Amino acid sequence: MTRSRGVVKSYNLHTSSIEDILQVTESDEHVIKGLYKFDRKYVTCTNTGKLCVWNDERDSSTQGEQGSQSLAIDCGCNISCMKEDPSKPSLVSTGGKENCLKLYDLNRPDAGAVFKAKNLANDWLDLRVPIWVTDIGYLPKSSSSLIVTSTGYHQVRVYDPTTKQRRPVIEMEWEELPITSLCVSPYNDRQVFVGNTVGEQALLDLRNRKCLGKFKGGAGAIRSMQCHPTVPVIVSCGLDRYVRIHDLKTRALTQKFYMKSRLNKLLITSDWSDPSEPTSDDIIKEVKEELHSPESEDESDALWDSLDNNTKELVAAKRSKSDADEPISAENAVKKKSKKRKVV
């Protein structure tokens, strides 16, 4: 994980300990926008466009001085995001404000950007279309390596680096607010999840260019969204300090957790709890059934018989007092009146 002043740290889940790995920069103006591990090395990218590969201090098998830079690439200024290709970790994409999508191959650093997107043509007023890439994703099951991006101008675009066309092959708009987070669906290679600055989340169909549905419950800007590869859920977090879990089948909010601080990123472990396991409501219901079972009544009768006479009198007095203090409901009052009339 990355911290302020360009510090990269490692958190051990088993020992709950934090260890410093490397120092990317010491300036507060340089913010780390992307981090991942590739070939026993760490890859970082700052908002100033400095894409670096670092040797792991804890790995003695890496060549070169430990914790030093082994590669540096200039990606341009105002970088907003950096993402690696899950199928080919040597490929990394960057983008930002007035900085088009670029694709780099870390195995060929001298070649520069292997793909550089081109801006759209001028609009109907002959004005230049602004650029602001906010997040990047890779379509997993596509035959070609398609890259999908979200923009700060509520647009979703798909690029094909294998063709000569540098402009997007698919483009669509969603709502009217900046899209801050994007997540590719692991179940359909033509569907993506998006979130904007007011907490709205939706599932978009890139093939038909339409919104398939929204996920309710968000209140702040969505900073990160992740789908579990096997369980049909999507987890999101943002500036409202909540982690929310939505069911992909019903789009209902199943759980949410308050985390006390503004959240920027989340990761999902592959060890997910089995939905068939009993929940807390099921456990409470089971306990109530056990309390009202005949066996529990027999145990209470045996306990009453074991008490002495003085204790039984005290318990009976307390019960009569609690019944007297209990408010009389309308049904009980009607029953008492009917009994009095019958006696008369």
UniProtKB/TrEMBL annotation:
Residues 315-344 are annotated as: Disordered. GO terms for biological process: ribosomal large subunit biogenesis. GO terms for cellular component: nucleolus; preribosome, large subunit precursor. Residues 335-344 have a biased composition (Basic residues). This is WDR74. The lineage of its organism: Eukaryota, Metazoa, Spiralia, Lophotrochozoa, Bryozoa.
